[in-house]
Specification:
This protein has about 750 residues and is mainly alpha-helical. It contains 32 helices and 9 strands. The longest helix has about 30 residues, at about 610-640.
Length: about 750
């Protein structure tokens, strides 16, 4: 052992974690060094599969087995005994064994408690109907040295229910089982942990339980599943539980994962997985110090995206391209003529080298890191584990490697629409925030980049009406970078994004609006500017997103003051509505669109304040002309026809044609009628009839309906103020102004 220790001393000096394992269990180190590596691996896997104990008692032996596996794998990797495939295969096979053990132990615990009634040796597995999928790198047998494991738990309701004791609620049981399995593997004890477990690759993880019913999952993937989720399922396989139910579930997903025919928009959406990464000039800013070997430019993710995006596009028609393993799929793409042999050779070698470097960075302290240390001494330790003693040469080699991968990646889907931003990458795939994207959002000026990223990803998940359809999500993939860039350029990104989010979330359907924004970028910039600098207009859009419908009208950008036929349209649509409430709603829809139109002309400097005042007043006049006949018809419906005449008189800013966006209406109604005239139905007097007309007219203007409101109405400038009849007889008005009116009333 002393001789072995001396030979391994440089390795242990570079890796405190491995040195700690060796010192803690010297007998295990001797056993590892003496045994055949494959035989030793088989012993460790067999021990995990044979483990039976209560959950608390099983934690220590399971963690010791993981430590033995780590020591074995590291020594075989660093000593060149195993290649990359053998290293990742050993780690993945142990992850499978650990998941099987955790499920079995947790299930046995529930069986002892009387909640689970199936036999321990049931051929369907520890919990009939429930299965565990290994996803991500674990699913492809490509786990890295200090990887977490992506697991998804599903169950077939009928099979699971049959295995439960009477009265046990199925979803609650499945949730507690998932939590117990996760705790057994991930909880840190004095012996460490087995694997960090990530359950977030299940459908919509923020709103679904940790174990999901298979029918619900299938419905989700078929309706709102995203292309990055399709990519995730390329690697999925059953690793524990009811294998038959798991196989049936994956078989049902085949048409979703491997679509035989893809329209142009779907292809663009798949390509967006790659295009969201900002491609700099080749080699620009690529340094070894601090390089992210997984997510950074020239890193592992670029190779995986290079492969998976082409698999999604081509694999529906060519089964040979469906391998879950990155290098096998790369070979298949080359054999099918989609990747040049020299590109394949370069990416193959780069992938092996990057994965080896990733492992060595993780061996320093068993951390889930993919970043080469910035500190030269720590980076020199990684170089030493890679067999290099010259740090400068090591750094130069890393930089050349990253440049080669980034250049090949930049060739994929060359040309076309860029879905990143001038500020940097904008990647919203996956279940966690992309580090590069958070940096981009910070550069854009957002104070809380993670919140913005979470919001965008929730929209990609179809949690709002605008992105509920596949077409809506595909359009949003293209719109998102333009939105964030436009918001950043306002100089007030937080306010602009917050107000846009209110508006966008309120859309009843998003395809038409998003297509409009994409086809008219100047208009889109205009709307984003409103969100930043015109809070009143932004609030109006947020409350009534339908106001944007007016943009589709050819008259929207017509200069204010030009006769567009609006007044006639308001009167016509109010009349055609058929009843009082219908007339109110019709006028409100047109008012909403025109108010937004005038506001946009003002905000963008297309008109003067004077012209805006005239146009706001003309709009109010049109609304009154449209609603007055409807109010009169209501009075006649209630009281019968009346032989008289009534006028609506505008005062204040409405009278002088100087209204603003927030003006109310100062009005009075004046009527003329024969002294003894009464209504044909109820025999109302003129004062009663025109009083009812005025009340209905005020309600038509000021009441809030499903389409919103119009104006506040003030009738206190009439001779009787707030007292007396609401409508004034013409003779009384003449007498009042002849004998009683104050000077201010004449003004």
């Amino acid at each position: 052992l002393d001789a072995a220790w001396a030979a391994l001393e440089p390795v242990f000096a570079a890796s405190p974690y491995l040195a700690g394992l060796a010192r803690r269990w010297p007998d295990r180190l001797r056993l590892t060094l003496d045994a055949d590596p494959e035989a030793r691996l088989a012993e460790i896997l067999a021990a995990a599969d044979a483990l039976t104990a209560a959950p608390d008692e099983a934690k220590a032996p399971l963690r010791r087995l993981k430590a033995e596996l780590h020591l074995l794998t590291a020594l075989c990797d660093l000593g060149g005994v195993w290649d990359l495939d053998q290293v990742t295969g050993a780690l993945s096979r142990f992850a499978d064994a650990a998941a099987r053990a955790a499920l079995r132990i947790t299930a046995d615990d529930w069986r002892r408690r009387g909640r689970l009634t199936s036999a321990p040796d049931d051929p369907r597995g520890p919990v009939p109907g429930l299965f565990v999928l290994a996803m991500g790198k674990g699913g492809a047998f490509e786990l890295n040295y200090s990887s977490d494991i992506d697991l998804s738990l599903f169950y077939e309701p009928e099979a699971l229910q049959s295995a439960l004791a009477e009265g046990v609620e199925m979803q609650g049981f499945a949730n507690r089982l998932a939590q117990g399995l996760t705790a057994l593997l991930a909880e840190r004890t004095a012996d460490g942990y087995v694997f960090r477990v990530d359950l977030r690759l299940r459908p919509d993880p923020s709103s679904t339980p940790p174990a999901v019913a298979a029918p619900m999952a299938l419905a989700y993937y078929e309706s709102v599943g995203q292309n990055w989720e399709r990519a995730a399922f390329i690697k999925a396989r059953v690793c524990a539980g009811d294998a038959a139910e798991g196989a049936a579930f994956l078989k049902a997903l085949v048409p979703y994962i491997w679509r035989r025919s893809l329209d142009y928009q779907a292809v663009l959406d798949i390509q967006s997985i790659k295009k969201q990464i900002h491609v700099h000039k080749t080699g620009e800013g690529l340094e070894a110090a601090g390089a992210n070997l997984k997510l950074g430019r020239g890193g592992i993710r670029e190779i995986e995206f290079y492969v998976q995006t082409q698999q999604l596009i081509l694999g529906g028609r060519d089964r040979s391209l469906r391998s879950p393993r990155t290098l096998e799929a790369l070979d298949a793409l080359t054999a099918a003529g989609h990747v040049a042999p020299e590109a394949r050779d370069e990416l193959h070698a780069a992938y092996v080298e990057l994965r080896a470097l990733e492992h060595r960075a993780q061996m320093l302290a068993d951390e889930q890191t993919h970043i080469l240390p910035v500190d030269p001494e720590r980076r020199a330790d990684v170089a030493a584990l890679a067999g290099q003693g010259d740090l400068a040469a090591f750094d130069a080699g890393i930089e050349r490697l990253l440049v080669r991968v980034n250049a090949r990646y930049g060739e994929l889907f060359e040309g076309g629409e860029d879905l990143s931003s001038p500020y940097g990458s904008l990647v919203f795939t996956g279940v966690e925030n992309d580090p590069g994207t958070l940096e981009t959002l910070a550069r854009m000026g957002f104070s809380e980049p993670a919140t913005v990223s979470d919001t965008i990803r929730s929209w990609h998940h179809g949690r709002i009406q605008a992105t509920r359809t596949a077409r809506g999500r595909e359009l949003f993939t293209r719109l998102a970078p333009q939105l964030l860039t436009a918001v950043a350029r306002t100089g007030a990104p937080d306010a602009a994004f917050r107000r846009f989010a209110v508006f966008f979330s309120g859309l009843s359907a998003g395809v038409q609006v998003q297509a409009l924004f994409l086809n008219q970028p100047k208009l889109f910039d205009l709307v984003v500017g409103v969100m930043a600098f015109a809070p009143r207009l932004a609030r109006a859009l947020g409350r009534q997103p339908q106001a944007l419908d007016g943009v589709l009208d050819a008259r929207f950008m017509t200069a204010l003051g030009t006769d567009t036929g609006l007044a006639d349209q308001v009167v016509r649509e109010a009349h055609e509505a058929g009843d009082f409430e219908g007339a109110m709603n019709a006028v409100r829809r047109l008012h909403r669109e025109q108010t937004f139109r005038i506001g946009m002309h003002v905000v963008t400097g297309r008109t003067t304040a004077e012209q805006a005042g005239l146009t706001y007043t003309s709009l109010a006049d049109a609304c009154m002309k449209g609603l007055a006949p409807a109010a009169l018809s209501e009075a006649e419906r209630m009281g019968g026809a009346f032989d008289g005449a009534v006028a609506v008189v505008a005062l204040g800013k409405a009278g002088s044609r100087e209204m603003t966006a927030g003006s109310d209406l100062d009005l009075m109604t004046v009527y003329a009628a024969p002294p003894e005239a009464v209504s044909a139905g109820r025999g109302w007097s003129a004062e009663t009839f025109y009083g009812r007309f005025t009340q209905r007219f005020i309600a038509a203007l000021s009441a809030h309906t499903a389409e919103g409101g119009l104006y506040e109405v003030d009738m206190r400038l009439r001779p009787t103020g707030s007292k007396g009849p609401v409508s004034v007889r013409l003779e009384a008005l003449e007498a009042y102004y002849a004998d009683e009116a104050e000077t201010w009333e004449f003004m």
